[in-house]
């Protein structure tokens, strides 16, 4: 049976502080690294200079002068994001963000949660939220192979054979998009509904691919992310995802085995 290589004697026990803070729900690893660069993170009163700092725990660590508490159990929420909200904590232009709606949508004991990935201003549908920065990172990584399913309403004409060709991927303006499972659901004249499942989640991927096919997208709804479906969750509402299927999914995610098609978890 394979074993883990022995830990180098020169390397202290523990994890990088960026990983510890992400796990504690302070922010994603990338955001934590930026916070450290800005001098906002300290250990025993001394400002840290590198996210590579190895610590056994978060004892003595402060962010913006406030002590960091130990990580809570991982929680996962599904939110039906309406169109017109920015997927960010704040917007320099003053536009409403998802947190405007989440104040009333989340349970009072939800604590701080972070969105998994982003939905554009005009894209609606399923947005996952978690208090665990490591879970957030793994759910977002293209290497995790987690499918995201969208329904797009578009104007124009396209053949099912053109959509089926996307299974081989497509290159648009020098950007390579991986395999896409696309199907024409229904059409009425030149108005179409198309379902698309992607695994990379590149910026505006669905819109760009459909525009490449000569279609104009006028509504885009994310209906699935990994094993989680939007279902009949009302617009603007959030629900905590619970149960054995969720626990199994998080365990598989930790092992790197979370790819697979949508299924409905028990809540």
Automatic annotation (TrEMBL):
The UniProt keyword set, sorted, is: Isomerase, RNA-binding
Entry protein name: Pseudouridine synthase
Q: Which Pfam families match?
A: PseudoU_synth_2, S4
Q: Which reaction does it catalyse?
A: a uridine in RNA = a pseudouridine in RNA
InterPro entries under this entry?
Answer: PsdUridine_s_RsuA/RluB/E/F_cat, PsdUridine_synth_cat_dom_sf, PsdUridine_synth_RsuA/RluA, PsdUridine_synth_RsuA/RluB/E/F, PsdUridine_synth_RsuA/RluB_CS, RsuA_PseudoU_synthase, S4_RNA-bd, S4_RNA-bd_sf
Q: What is its EC number?
A: 5.4.99.-
Q: Which top EC class is named for this enzyme in its record? A: isomerase
**PROSITE patterns named among the record's database cross-references:** PSI_RSU, S4
Q: Which organism is it from?
A: Erythrobacter fulvus
UniProt family annotation: Belongs to the pseudouridine synthase RsuA family.
Domain RNA-binding S4, chain residue ranges per copy = 15-74
> SUPFAM superfamilies attached here?
Alpha-L RNA-binding motif, Pseudouridine synthase
């Amino acid at each position: 049976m394979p074993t883990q290589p022995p830990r180098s004697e020169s390397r202290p026990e523990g994890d990088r502080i960026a990983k510890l803070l992400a796990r504690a729900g302070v922010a994603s690893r990338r955001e934590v690294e930026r916070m450290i660069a800005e001098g906002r993170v300290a250990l025993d009163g001394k400002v840290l200079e590198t996210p590579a700092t190895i610590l056994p725990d978060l004892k003595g660590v402060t962010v913006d002068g406030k002590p960091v508490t130990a990580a809570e159990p991982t929680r996962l929420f599904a939110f039906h994001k309406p169109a017109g909200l920015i997927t960010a904590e704040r917007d320099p232009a003053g536009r409403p963000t998802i947190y405007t709606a989440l104040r009333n949508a989340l349970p009072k004991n939800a604590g701080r949660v972070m969105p998994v990935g982003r939905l554009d201003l005009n894209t609606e549908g399923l947005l996952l939220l978690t208090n665990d920065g490591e879970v957030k990172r793994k759910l977002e990584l293209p290497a995790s192979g987690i499918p995201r399913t969208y329904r797009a309403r578009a104007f124009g004409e396209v053949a099912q054979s053109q959509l089926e060709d996307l299974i081989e991927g497509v290159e648009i303006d020098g950007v390579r998009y991986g395999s896409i499972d696309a199907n024409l659901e229904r059409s009425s004249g030149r108005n179409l509904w198309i379902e698309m499942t992607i695994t990379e989640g590149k910026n505006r991927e669905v819109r760009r691919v459909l525009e490449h096919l000569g279609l104009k997208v006028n509504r885009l709804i994310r209906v699935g992310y990994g094993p989680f479906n939007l279902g009949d969750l009302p617009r603007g509402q959030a629900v905590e995802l619970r149960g054995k299927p969720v626990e199994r999914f998080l365990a598989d995610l930790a092992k790197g085995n979370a790819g697979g098609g949508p299924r409905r978890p028990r809540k």
